Amino acid sequence: xxxxxxxxxxxxxxxxxxxxxxxxxxxxxxxxxxxxxxxxxxxxxxxxxxxxxxxxxxxxxxxxxxxxxxxxxxxxxxxxxxxxxxxxxxxxxxxxxxxxxxxxxxxxxxxxxxxxxxxxxxxxxxxxxxxxxxxxxxxxxxxxxxxxxxxxxxxxxxxxxxxxxxxxxxxxxx
Length: 174
What we know:
Shape: rod-shaped
Number of domains: 2
Number of strands: 0
Distance between the termini: 91 Å
Low-confidence stretches: none
Radius of gyration: 37 Å
CATH architecture of the largest domain: Orthogonal Bundle
CATH topology of the largest domain: Rna Polymerase Sigma Factor, Chain: A
Mean pLDDT: 83
CATH class of the largest domain: Mainly Alpha
């Protein structure tokens, strides 16, 4: 095959056709042996991809080196590309994560208990305003309306309550 490759590089069209025919006969069993039975039908695709790669990269062949080593390197790379394309990557959409990540009810109960202990340190109305706006996601207007106070009064109460909690639980108040 080396002589056919050298002749084809020198412009001999008949040698090039003979080379491609020989390569096809050589590459089919090469790929068939490497493919699993489920992918045996892909051997011809790999042969064609390899012949195309050899055609487009034939000028990179070093005339002083063995041709079969160059041919097998090209075929090997085409085979690796095929395996990578065919590999199955299992993915789970994020919205389907329930079976993977178990919900920890114990952590929720502990967090709720801790929050109750912390909010017990401020007046009841302030505690409720903080809970409604910071935990439950209500707006200041909704929380203020629930307690029959102005939005400004609700903001001041929340601010003072949070400031008191930070002071108390950060070691500022004994």
